[in-house]
Amino acid sequence: MRPMFRFGSQAKKFLPANSVRIFQDAISPTQEASLMHELFPILSRRRYQRAHWDSVIEGYREVERPFWKSPENEATIAKLRGQISDFVSSQAPGAAEPLGYTGEWLPVHVLDLSEEGFITPHVDSVKFSGGLVCGLSLLSSAVMVLSPEDPVLSRSSDAKVEMFLPRRSLYVLSGPARYEFAHSIERNRDNSNASSSHGGSEQTKESEISEFSKRERRVSLILRDAKVEA
Fold first, then answer.
1. 3-state DSSP call for residue 166?
2. Phi, psi of 104 (to 5 degrees)
3. In this structure, are residues 77 and 85 in contact, taking their beta carbons and an 8 Å threshold?
4. What is the pLDDT of residue 194?
């Protein structure tokens, strides 16, 4: 299946094609159910938080998973990491270095975003993580928006990219998409406002857009490679 993006008319000038990728159906419904079976009792003991310590997220709860009790879940995470590694190495000979991939992985960051929650535009910290930010969407589809860090460009919708993330899809951000574009998950939008105006070519149909216009509770497994000091 083809990736689902909508680029503003200026976005492709600043965002190379290999710096962002969406893999649809990255896991099966059975694998999703197994992951949530392990995560549900852990997450249910935590309350949804109104605000994150850095004011980036609202309506969330989170936990880190350095390991998984279920061998099936361990295998699922290993498969995803392998898929990401294969994608990085397939870009071109020696592509891993410019993409910033280190080959070492941080513990999985589990982020449970309520139906009313949202994530404001931000670039993930580079203090500990490397050149990849990847996310697996569980329970719900979502729209992720990439907006340039440049304060002038960020005010223009023509320089933004909408990423339509189906349930059980895996996104990969690297290079400029990782370091030069902020990513966000907006508040739920009404169906009447589901198709925002962009000056560029649209790579999705309106019927596809409406599928993502109402986000339910979404659990994302965020996979980051570790920063390796020279």
1. coil
2. -110, 140
3. no
4. 40
Give 213's DSSP letter.
Answer: S
Are residues 220 and 171 in contact, defined by beta-carbon separation less than 8 angstroms?
A: no
Q: How many CA atoms lie within 13 A of 181 on its CB side?
A: 27
Averaged over 32-46, what is the pLDDT?
97
CA distances from 201 to 145, 166, 193 (A): 16, 21, 18
Residue 108 confidence class, pLDDT cut points 50, 70, 90: very high
Residue 54 has what DSSP assignment? T
Strand locations in 107-160, DSSP E?
108-122, 129-138, 142-148
* Confidence at 67, pLDDT banded by 50, 70, 90: very high
Please say whether the dihedral angle defined by the alpha carbons of residues 118, 187, 120 and 226, taken in this order, is positive or negative. Answer: positive
Distances (CA, A) of 200 to 11, 13, 86, 161: 8, 11, 31, 10
CA angle 79, 38, 219 (to 5 degrees): 75
- pLDDT band of residue 92 (cuts 50, 70, 90) is low
Give me the residue label for tokens 């990513």: 183
How far is 165 from 215, CA to CA, in rounded Å? 11
Query: Residue 168's pLDDT band (boundaries 50, 70, 90)?
Result: very high
